[in-house]
Each structure stands twice: as structure tokens, then as C-alpha cells.
Amino acid sequence: MAAASKLLLMFLFLTAGIGSVFLAVVLSTRHPVEDQTEIHHRGYAIRWKWFLFVTLFLLSAFVSTLPFFPYLPSVTAQGPALRVPVIAQQFTFIMPSHVPLQQRIVFEVTSRDVNHNFGIYNSKGELIAQTQAMPGYVNDLEVTFRKSGRYTVRCLEYCGVGHALMEKEFTVGGY
Amino acid sequence: MVSTSDPVGRSVMKLYLASGLVVAILMMLVGLAMRMSQAQWLSMPPEIFYELLTLHGAGMIIALLICAMGGLWFLMRRRITLSAPLAVAAWALIILGVVGVVISAVFGNYAGLYTFLYPLPFMGNWHGWATGVFLIGMMLINTGWMIWCFQMLGAVFRAYGGLRGAMGWNFVWRPKKFAAAGHKPPPPEAFPALVAGVDGLLTGMAGMLLGIALLVRWIDPRVLIDPLWAKNFTYFYMHAIANLIIYMLAAFIYVGLSYATKREYHTSKVFVIGWWSSLVFILTNYFHHLYMDVSAQPQILQYFGELSSYLTAIPVTAVTVFGALMLVWRSRTRWTLGAVFMYSGLIGWVVGGVGAEIDASVPFNVHLHNTLWVPAHFHTYLLGGCLLFILGWVFLLLESRSEHSTSKLVRWLIFTLSFGGMMVFLSGFYFGGATGVPRRYATQPPPGPLIAQFATIGAIIMLVGFTLAFFEGLRLRSNFSADRMLWPQDLKDKVS
Lengths: 175, 496
Fold this sequence. Notes:
By secondary structure, chain A is of the alpha+beta class.
């Protein structure tokens, strides 16, 4: 299952949980009315635990995502890589039509005119990597292709009326 | 202090709410046309699609902002002195700016979108004058917004003892001395007003600086601007505005949901600290828009952006939403349309927030950035949150004065159509995002068109529900009781 599909499942699961809580609170209004002071007394105790849970959960999530950040010190520390320049311009990409398999590649992405995006889709249509293409700057995107085949680059930053047509195909390995 | 029967205050609020809702209705129809085009059920050239997208994005944000400004202004005017002519002047500037944006898109074919990333406004296939008119229009809107913020902030400071008093500083840190002196903390709705004033002015100034820089570039093409600087300023400004709308509308929850549940929302120490943190996080969490500038953006800001985006959720869930749930729990709530809309808006806020937090996680952002997941989460909280808070507020006002009430069947119909349709409509964005369909594509790659077809059907069902709600609102309004105030007497007494 693609990473994004797992994220969708996680989202749907959380949404169902949130919906259940809100529904339970609505249904509580069918029961006899409770004094607000009493609810405050119990509610504040629950809120304190909820605050601690949410805070610890979010801090843990932050720490656990750090190793997966795609920023360069971790990329360059891993040794040599094939550096592939990519120039985006309205409404095409100037880049090689073939890259090797099982080799660390660093795409050096920039733009000749406006802001673009360099989003790589595999043959199943899954978005596997991306970075912005900004005029005057170079963004280094590290990718190691594990499967040979046909890949498509799409622009994911609105760049003008030809935005949806801005794509380029390239092959990987012995495809 | 102005009483709740204040006719001038009511007129100003109605002016803001009516104009905001009219723009919102028009922009929803524009949105429907775009979704139909993506579904391949409507033939639309890409240049028209992007002109409509520019209108839809700017229009919806401004429409909801105007509604939030009018509602919060009215709520605060019950307690502090606010000038009606100044509020009308701010509104007029905003409307003038909206006219400019419409002229640039409709007659000048401007299609640089609401988040006009430099240098795109100067490199599109639209008329050169359209870029200038669009920028001037946006700056007029920003000027109106900043006047409103300035007025609100000044009035809040005067009424509650400067920044320190308005923030509830002594209430939190010196509670015994504060109580012994007979002081009371500001009411809950004063905190959204404070935060909107401070953050609105800070980000509004950044927006103005950006606008001036772009206007100079428009006048003299030899002037160059750093694209990364412009991008940071654009999102600092735009993200804060979009965020502030829902934070301002929290005031509706504090007052409106209290009325619906026949309970009171108190200012507590936790509540005040929660708003302090929101004051900061609204300014700092925009960095998540630049995660994919992997080398250009300073890395420390990427880490800070994720942490800040995560921490934003704490005051919302542990304070405002939790407090709202405590209001409803085992209460005497009568589930009128006003109460249903108001309560459902909370769900939109939280669910949209979850979608936002997932996207604000750097490793996940690699797969979701600028896919349909982005409009998924902001439509959830702008449509399923903000718009529902506004509708809830409008219906609570109508219900408080009308001699009629809405039948159970009509309530059920409106609820089922509005929410059922909305869920289908929003699901289209989430599924599209998870399958990698890019956002802002006039023609989408598969499975975009198929998903858009389901989403279009959902949007139509939702709009049928909203149309029913509109006519029900008219029916309630046509039966106002002459001796009933806009707002119930008991609340008026407490305010006075």
C-alpha cells in the first residue's frame, strides 16, 4: 500500500473517532440535565489528562519524524551520489530522459522563470518524491530508484495556464 | 457600553454578514463550476478555469473574513466602545478591493491565484494592467482589514487596561491580588478580538510591505525581488489571515453555543494561556508551506515549522473544543438549526485540523504537498468549520427573534443534505490527495476526473441543503416578533 493511502486510512480512523466523541456528547443531551458546576469539576480533571496526552503525543510525533526529514546534511553524509541538474520553465522540464537504477541520485532543481515544483510519480501513479523549483535557488532532492520503469515528473506548484500540462517522462534502469 | 438592542451595531453586523454571505454563495457556485469542469462534465478553457480559481480562492477567504469581522465586532460592541462609521469605512475599503480583484480577473484575465507567488504575477498571459489592479485591490482589502484590527485592538486595550489587562496577565500570575482588587478578567470573546488585532496588524503590515514591493516591480520591471523572501512573506500573511478567520469565529462558540446550551463559557486561567499560545502559533506555523523548498529555506525553520504546527493543536483541542463539549454535555440544548450548525462547525474544525497536522508532518508532506489533500483540509475547516459557525450564528439570531420554529422534518432534511453532501464533496479531495492528484489542475490525471464526478454530486446535494436552509431562514425572518429582542433578555442582563 502506498504511503499516502496509509495516511488516508489513518485520517479516516481518526475522523471516525472524533465523530464518535461528538455524537456521544450530542446523545448525552437526551439524559437528565447535569449541573454545570459539577460538569466543570469532573471535566477539568479530564481536560488536564487530555492536555498531557495531546502534548506528549505531539512532542513524540515530532521527535519520531525527525529521522525522516529530507534535508541535506543527512543526504550528503551518505557518500557520493550522481548529481542530475533539472531546470523547470513554463511549461516543461529540462532534464535527462534516463537515470540509473539502485544509485543515489541528487536532482539539482531550479527554475528559469517562475516557481514550479518537481514531483516524481512512479508507474502506478504514486507520488514518491518532490521538491520546489525556485528561480535563483537550487533545491537538492535525493532519490534512489529501486524499481526500473517509466516515471513521470509533474509540476505541483501553480505556474500559469499551462500548469496542468507541464510534465516530463523519464526511464529508470534497463526499461 | 452599548446594549444588545443597539440598532446601529446590528446594522453594521448585518452589512458585514450579508455582503460576506452573498460573496460566499457566488464563490461556491464558481467552485461548483470548476469541480464540474474537472469532472469533464463542463467544457472550460484552462485560462477561464484559472481566472475562476483566482476569484474563488480570494473570494471565499474574504467572504468568510468579512463575516467573522462583522460578528466579532458586534459581539465586542456589546461590551466596549467601537465606532460604527469606522467599521463601515473598513468594510467599504474591503468591498472596493473585492471590486478590483473581480475586474482584474474578469476583464483583465488575471489568473495568478490568491497565493500570488512572485514572479508569477508578472509572467502570465494576462493583461499587464490586470496585475496592478489585482495588487491594488488586495492592498485595499488589507487596508480595510488593518483598520478593523486597529480599531478593535485600541478599543480592547482601552477597555481592559492595556495589553497587560487585555491579555489577562495579572489574572493568571497574580490571581489573589487580582480578585482582591475586585477585577474581573476580560470575557471569552475578548481574546479572539485581541489575537485578531495583534496578529492581524503584524501580518497585515507584512502583507502591505509585500504588496508595495510587488507594485514597485509592476511599475519598474527592472526591480528584482528575492523569490524566497516573497514566498515567506506571502504565506506569513495569507496563512495567518486564513487561520485567524476560524479563531475569530471561536467567539461565536463562546457566546452562541452558551446561548444554545443555556450555560456560560467562563474565562479561566487555562483558557487565557491557551489564547496566549495561539497568539504566537498563528504567526509561526506558516513555515509548513515551505517544507519542499528543501535546500533554499533555512533548515532550522523547517524543524521549527513542524513543531509549531503540531503545538497549534493543543490550545484548540484542550481549551476551545474541550470547553465547547463541556458546554453541551448533559445540557438542555434544543437542537435547532442554529445549534446544529454551530456544533457541527466544531467537528469541521477538528477534522480539518487533523488533516492539516498530517500534511504538516514533513515526511508525510513529501507525499501530500500540493496534492488535493491541501484543499481537502482547508475546505474542511473553512466550509465545514467557518461557514457552519457563521450559519449557526445567523440562525441563532433568527431563531431568537422569530415566532416560528423549524419543524423536525425540515431540520432533518437540511442536516442530511448539507452534511451528507459535504462529506461526499470533501471525501473527493481527501481521496484525490491520497492518490497523488495534483491541486490546481484544470485537467487532472486519473483518477482525478472520476473522483471529481463524485465530489460534484456531493457539492450539488450540499448546495440543495444550503438552499433549503436559506429559504427556512427567510421564513423565520418573516415572522419576527416585535417585542422580542435580537438576543435573549437573560444574556443582555448578564452583559450589562
